[in-house]
From TrEMBL:
Keywords: Membrane, Transmembrane, Transmembrane helix
Biological source species: Rufibacter quisquiliarum
Protein name: HTTM domain-containing protein
Membrane-traversing stretches: 38-57, 77-100, 112-132, 138-154, 170-190, 237-258, 279-301, 353-376
Amino acid sequence: MKQTPLPVSDRVVDTSTQRGGWSAAGRHNRYLRAAVDFFYAETAFRAFTFLWLYWAMAKFELLLERPRVLYTPMNAIAESIAPVLPAKPAFWAVLCVAAVANLAKIFCRQTVWLQGLLVGCLLWANLVLWGYGFLSHINHVFLLAHLFLVWVAVEKPSNNSPSREQFQTINWFYLGLLFTYTLAGLWKVGALGRKLLMSSGDVHWLKPEAALYNALVSFRDYDQPFPYAQLFLGYPWVWQIGFVVVVYLQVASVFAAWRPALRPWVGFFLVCFHLLNQFAFLIFFKVTCLVLLCLFFPYSWLLPAYRRRKLSPAHAAFQGKFLAATYKRLYANGEEDSFSGFEAYRQLWVDTYGYAAGIFYLPGINTAVSFFMRVFRGGSAG
């Protein structure tokens, strides 16, 4: 596809003092990519929502086979909006309203009240489905995503005008989702620290037998055979290292909210985390995995909507080495993106390899590599 050039100008714009080295053209491309990715992510998510509504109907049919007396709302909200198990026509009516609102939002993305109505229907249905003495959190990412969509509206790429405000709104959307994983990671750190400081005799994840014990409990609860004992007994260090890696990725995941190139990697890591839990510990988060796939897939990598409207640099140049390295993109109107140090390498890799280079935006990599460059090369161009 032909890419849109910038208007030609004789004036060279000095961007050396701009935050992050971004010119107006560079910022436009960032905003455009984020908007394109989010538009298709939301569209895929709404398609999945129809599947979720079908699943909710099927599960409710199973619940009707239980004695109604077993229905027990789990909190004050459930007691106020769903105090008793609703009749089948009422439940189906609410899901139909949700389906209509979800469909309408595909075509009327600026209509806030439709999303609010959809959120209310989904919350009510979820409370009904989990009103039997146990309120699962397997749908928390699904429900939170719909809640945060109340404040985000991105039209299809041909009608959308990317802006800084829209870009920030998208980032806040992902911040809300990923913060739940960061909290989970911080909880693990706190729980582990407490046990270590108190010299507790309780099993924690750094003990060799921790993974085995957790797996045994889960398989016993589900009354399933346990054929993987050797994986836990023979390689306990894998699970110990894996715990540290998982905690790091969970705590660090919130940083991807403001680093779009990192988001697909974080989404991939979180899906792998849930699949590993499902395989090893029978902890099922199927809905969450599908939601993550919908919302974190790099659609602009495959679809032409981004390439059609991207402002392509007329020239790009990389010079120097290590901390003295520089990378510049020069656009047709004289505007220039300019980066130095390790950020120069990252921007070059992103331009060359696309989202594959996003992994270098994990927290700590810039600090570690820059420290290595400073210590072993003294920042010289070499």
